[in-house]
Sequence to fold (333 residues):
Amino acid sequence: MHFAETEKTARAKLAESEAERASTEKELTVKREALEEARRKKAEKKEEADKAEAEIAEYREALARADDDVNDAAKKKAELDKRTVEAKLRASELEARAESDEKKYEALRRFEKATDFYYKDASGAIKPVALPEGMSISKNSIWIGDYIFEDVNKDGVINEQDRTYIGNPEPDFTFGFGNSFSYKGFDLSINLTGSVGNEVVNWGRRELENPRGNNNILKSALDYAQLALIDPNGPDDYRNIQIVGGDPYTCRMAIAKGTDDSNYRFSDRFGEDGSFLRLKNLEIGYKIPYGRIYVSGANLLRFSPFDLWDPELSSWNSYPLQRTVNVGLQLNF
Fold:
């Protein structure tokens, strides 16, 4: 009897243990499934993160390609501008050469006193200075304040035979510089052009500095030589005339057209140094998200001893090269 009760108790405990074991197995299964679910979600998140990283890398690569395209476009534009300027410069040089190939008179100085109308030759004999053909010493002809020209062939008269080649339109060298730079988010492209050693005709001065001209004139045209009598009570004679004002190198305002034509004849007075340095193009940019902002300019600066507006102009009445400034925004979508 005692044995049966013991067996019954043992079986009850075994059943209870089996139930606990089944419960534990079930709990472990639930936890295992939860762990697998967590691992699956973690794997999905990692996959999404890797995909996002790949998209970011692809976007960065696209931005880099876009930057390279912009820089390449800027370089090509600078090279095109350089070639255009070189072509214009060459055309200007050819035209200047054509003008310079025409012979000029050589202006020596002004008649400033009566003795300038005469000179001593090698033998000491006093002779008259050569005057323009058909002209004489007179207020309506050649007078104090008019120009003395070189008598090249020494025949005692100034005419077509006294024209000679003066100056050289060929530059010692021409140059250009173009480059692009970048630093962090900034970029810069620059193009410089220039010419050194050539002489050009400043035809504009011939037309615009003549106070008797029919065109608009420069302010410097008012600096013509001012004449007055040495002795206010003396005769109106070239021996009694002096220059009292005006630019020390300009002639008087002539009364007669023939005198005016003589003073403003095509001479070395209008040949000038045509050397120059020009800041042809400049562009500064800065990268922003999804794009770039920039400021660009053309013909911003010019350095030259040339007396008028531009030594590159093909003729005196051509429009000067315009200075332009642009502000822009480039967007990438």
